[in-house]
């Protein structure tokens, strides 16, 4: 949970920095020191992601953060200001949580893979952001928690992403105790893929990005969508669905090219079709 200043004060620059190079879009949370997920930051980040989803030149998205914290979650001071509203903040709370949920679903539904690059603390909705990404690489000093229970606010929306990526018992442990876990536990729980020393973090993330760039963008789009859809189905329904996905994928030009290249022992030339 954030202890950052409310969003109506101080910083007026971009809350999300955008860099694009060779098919890789890097979006950096720029709301130091806590990178709190204020309304303004979430709207800005979602705007970048929505645009990326329509841009065929974007092949991979990296989500990073400036400063010592990845993200301390929602801005509690921003939320608290609205307790003085006539409805005690209900409308603003609904707006905040709905926008956050839409942001997380945007990441999941984005056709491109999204890699979280974490150096520092990711807590509450910040932890939810990590869990929502397709891959997550962190430094060995990074930490994670869902501490809402400590202040009387159960992390119910972070729970959605957490419970879909972390083993059930470990997810409940994080949610019920609010305790912070280190990078090693986060990897064991399934929250992150890999731990690297701080000086190699960006290099490691870029290696993942380059590996993804070498694949067919269409194939990755098909696969990412199918992965999340089938995971919510029964075993039988999942197989029925993925059979059709495989058939349609086989008919794609990139699959025809990839198989021909494999048989011919040459490098495939992808067209994204």
Automatic annotation (TrEMBL):
Lineage, opening ranks: Bacteria, Pseudomonadati, Pseudomonadota, Alphaproteobacteria, Hyphomicrobiales
Native source species: Pseudohoeflea suaedae
CDD domains recorded: crotonase-like
SUPFAM superfamilies noted in UniProt: ClpP/crotonase
Gene3D superfamilies, per the entry: 2-enoyl-CoA Hydratase, Chain A, domain 1 (3.90.226.10), Lyase 2-enoyl-coa Hydratase, Chain A, domain 2 (1.10.12.10)
Keywords, sorted A to Z: Fatty acid metabolism, Lipid metabolism, Lyase, Transit peptide
Transit peptide among keywords: yes
Protein's recorded name: Enoyl-CoA hydratase domain-containing protein 3, mitochondrial
Statement: the UniProt record of this protein carries the keyword Transit peptide: yes
GO MF annotations, alphabetized: hydro-lyase activity
Gene Ontology biological process terms, A to Z: fatty acid metabolic process
């Amino acid at each position: 949970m954030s202890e950052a200043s409310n969003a109506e004060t101080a910083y007026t620059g971009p809350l999300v920095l955008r860099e694009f190079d060779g098919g890789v879009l890097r979006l950096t949370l720029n709301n130091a020191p806590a990178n709190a997920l204020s309304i303004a930051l979430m709207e800005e980040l979602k705007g970048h992601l929505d645009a990326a989803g329509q841009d065929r030149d974007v092949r991979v998205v990296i989500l990073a953060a400036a400063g010592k914290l990845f993200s301390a979650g929602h801005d509690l001071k921003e939320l608290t200001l609205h307790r003085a509203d006539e409805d005690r903040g209900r409308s603003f709370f609904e707006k905040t949580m709905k926008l956050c949920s839409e942001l997380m679903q945007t990441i999941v539904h984005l056709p491109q893979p999204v890699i979280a690059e974490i150096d520092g603390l990711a807590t509450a909705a910040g932890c939810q952001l990590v869990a929502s990404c397709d891959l997550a690489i962190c430094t060995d000093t990074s930490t994670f928690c869902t501490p809402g229970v400590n202040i009387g606010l159960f992390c119910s929306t972070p729970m959605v992403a957490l419970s879909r990526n972390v083993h059930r018992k470990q997810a409940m442990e994080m949610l019920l105790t609010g305790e912070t876990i280190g990078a090693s536990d986060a990897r064991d729980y399934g929250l992150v893929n890999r731990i690297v020393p701080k000086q190699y973090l960006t290099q490691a993330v870029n290696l993942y990005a380059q590996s993804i760039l070498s694949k067919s963008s269409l194939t990755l789009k098909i696969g990412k969508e199918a992965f999340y859809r089938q995971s919510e189905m029964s075993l039988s329904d999942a197989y029925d669905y993925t059979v059709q996905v495989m058939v349609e994928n086989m008919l794609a030009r990139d699959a025809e090219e990839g198989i021909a290249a494999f048989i011919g022992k040459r490098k495939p030339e992808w067209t994204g079709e």
